[in-house]
Amino acid sequence: MTQLHYQSLSDTCRQLKSGALSSVDVTEHLLERITTLDPSLKSYALLLADSALSNAERLDAERTAGKPLGALHGVPIAIKDLLFTEGVATASGTVVMADFKPKYTATVVRKLKDAGAVIIGKTQLTEGAFGAHHPDIEPPKNPWDVTRWTGVSSSGSGVAVAAGLAYGALGTDTGGSIRFPSASCGLVGIKPTYGRVSRYGAFALAESLDHIGPMTRTVEDAARMLAVIAGQDANDATTLQAPVANYFASASERLPATTIGVDWAYASAGVDADVVATIREALDRFTDLGAQVVEVTLPDEYKQLVNEWGLTCGLECAKAHAGYFPESKDKYGPVLANLLELGLSVAPAKYAELEDLRAVFRNKMDAMFASVDLLIAPCMRSLPPSVEEMNRAVDHEDERAEFITFTAPFNYSGHPSITLPSGFADNGLPKAFQLIGQHLGEPSLVRAGFAHEQALGTIVYPDL
């Protein structure tokens, strides 16, 4: 029998709605587990125990009174600590913002609460959601192997969900920050279409590249969370007017006529054999499920976008930090400070060149998706690397560019992606891959993800 903390979000929600579980009991169970385990795992920046229990009591009373219950009724969920919560510290992984208390709540957090979620805490992230944790903040630890990378920047969200310290969490993704921790921690992560989810009340890394999405242990859970947070928002002019689908409604164990594209040069050049084998294994499963696999060629513009992602990110990040940097530079860690210095030096003409290249790449991707439904690719070029290896890589721009080869292009283009667990390597580390979909193609991603999940079987998370 699955332990309570490792039940799926969706199963837990169904039991809460039926009265088989109470939100207070579930919340107390997770708080006790967090108190026991998180001093070593470091996934939470801030635990919201009192407000979580108060909201759990209210939600239990509403169920008893027969009031309508939301899609996340009574379920403890964590949010990344760059999402504003009115009157509650939101540090964004920094020291300089440690005492910042927003005057309003982020749209996605409000939507979670409106759907009945219990916000149990705010998860740790890298400084400003870039590549490294602030030197004064101890990074989260991967529950599969503490010597291995958690993925960044949504490191705390990944660890909290994989360790059974939350049923789901929100992450953000500017160059891979939902996909890296999802792959490293054995989770399902959805980076939605740009504009599908409001960014209002999220402290930006780079506004034109930032995406907010769910990180969970099952595809149904991710679909459930996405349906809650998606939709147009008058406070975010970049949100899309398209109606929000019931993302899980069409999921089944077999796929309808689905064509999956693979660019083998893209998916294998410089990629470890274990990761290439994972892609081949996934394609074999999809073929057995009824999908057709065809070879495609990714638009060549992705190479320059990957190599110069730091210029776009840096310029936009400097705008976000204008109230703190360079005046308070001494409170910044070296990695984020270097990005901000770079951003302040980027010429407007260079930024405009990359914006033009972005449009070309996006249009060519759309043309490719006229012939395939989905694209398969690695999330990372290796299995979860060691912490030491990633600490070295983050200091070298060329290595950093190589690592975002499979993620950053789709932040530029805004196409949605789902990261899927794919079993375990011989050393016990989780394997993963991603599917990229057409603009607003989240239903197809969920459908394929669920079919793959059913074919693969249940992931057993660490017994901590």
Throw out a few tags for this protein.
464 residues, alpha/beta, Amidase signature (AS) enzymes, 11-stranded mixed sheet, 17 helices, 11 strands
Major β-sheet annotation: 11 strands, mixed
Which spans of ≥5 residues are poorly predicted at pLDDT below 50?
none
Structural class, please?
A: alpha/beta
In CATH terms, the superfamily is Amidase signature (AS) domain
Sheet with the most strands: spatial strand order:
1-3-2-4-6-5-10-11-9-7-8
Helix-strand sequence: HHEHEHEHEHEEHEHHEHHHHEHHHEEH
CATH class: Alpha Beta
- Name the helicity range: 40-55%
Kindly state the number of beta strands. 11
Structure description:
- There is one protein chain.
- This protein is of the alpha/beta class.
- It has a single domain, classed as Alpha-Beta Complex (Amidase signature (AS) enzymes).
- Helices cover 40% and strands 13% of the residues.
- It contains 17 helices and eleven strands.
- It has helices at residues 9-18, 23-41, 49-64, 107-114, 155-162, 179-185, 219-229, 264-268, 273-288, 302-307, 309-320, 334-345, 348-368, 387-393, 397-403, 408-413, 442-456; strands spanning 44-47, 76-80, 118-123, 168-173, 188-191, 211-216, 259-262, 292-295, 374-377, 417-424, 430-437.
- An eleven-stranded mixed sheet has the order 1-3-2-4-6-5-10-11-9-7-8, sandwiched between helices.
- The longest helix has 21 residues, at 348-368.
- The radius of gyration is 20 Å and the shape is globular.
